[in-house]
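name: query_chain
kind: protein
chains: 1
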Amino acid sequence: MSGIYIHIPFCKQACHYCDFHFSTSMKKKEEMVLALAKEIQMRKSEFANETIETIYFGGGTPSVLSTEEIKLLIDAVYENYKVVENPEITLEANPDDLSSERIIELSNTPINRLSIGIQSFFEEDLMMMNRAHNSAEAQKSLQEATQYFENISIDLIYGIPGMGNKKWRQNIETALSFGVPHISSYALTVEPKTALNKLIQAGKIAAPKDEVAQEHFAILVETLEKNGFIHYELSNFGKENYFSKNNSAYWLGKKYIGIGPSAHSYDGISRSWNIANNTHYIKSIQEDKIPNEVEILTVADRYNEYIMTGLRTIWGVSLDRIAAEFGPGYLGYLNKQSEKHIQNDVLEIVTSSDSVFGRNRIEKILKTTPKGKFLTDGIASDLFYLNLV
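structure:
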């Protein structure tokens, strides 16, 4: 099974922390939608032997598109690809775009999953991050959306300057009060070219503290697991049967096509990415050219990517898969690099009969311990193989 990601590069305003590709000008929106539909058609040969299981509208802010524009893009997928009977079709949306009328409209389309960018239920946090919605809109959007959509995910940000543990607990409890089955939560990070970085350098906003983020993460894991959520990926929590199929496919190494400016694609042996410029993207597509760069992944690249994604999930890293796909040299290196982390109780080796990778047998799995979860990315980087060509 494979997936299609459609990048919608427009936002009403720029969040201070965001470094994704987008434009706050909507002048080229109609041209962009037509270009996206055309790229979908142009790339159908890449998935001639694949079946689409997920369609994901990300961004940017996909909910700035009209319902008709969204349906046009979904129709383009169905017209050019084989699609499973009940695909997961996700739309990322901001609360200020989710009026009662709009939610009803969306519920009458093939979209069956909403990912709502709440980030915080507190007004001061939303203002600091320069979000386009307010606290009242956040709560109202969830009240309305839960009446028409069963499968809803919400985003929350932790580690925000000035947010104490009590306030963070309130954020989580408010989210839980709406009965959503999936929560994605990320630490506030400061990217180099963002407004947040400039504001911190100017002394207008305090810098996030790692120790605060780590405390918030521990509270998040404890609270959500007590409420029946499964911590299936470092930043993602879902009730049973509500894991994101789209994101899980990324972490499990499945193929996907990224449509739109800055979108990435992966076919198992190579990775490609489209140009991050709306004008150049539209012009190239109109000229029947896909404006992308392609990188053929080395064995080391694929090993490192599996380590990075595998450790972030409950499925971990299969030592049997490492041996079978990458060879004994990589397995020996991984075992050696893991030793100190196992001794420090941040990694462990467990046995599993999970057949995620199509093997119906018991496997040895390398996973992070509860103590190591927050440190996952740093641990993974220490396991990367940097010397093979």
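note: DSSP finds 14 helices and 15 strands in the chain.
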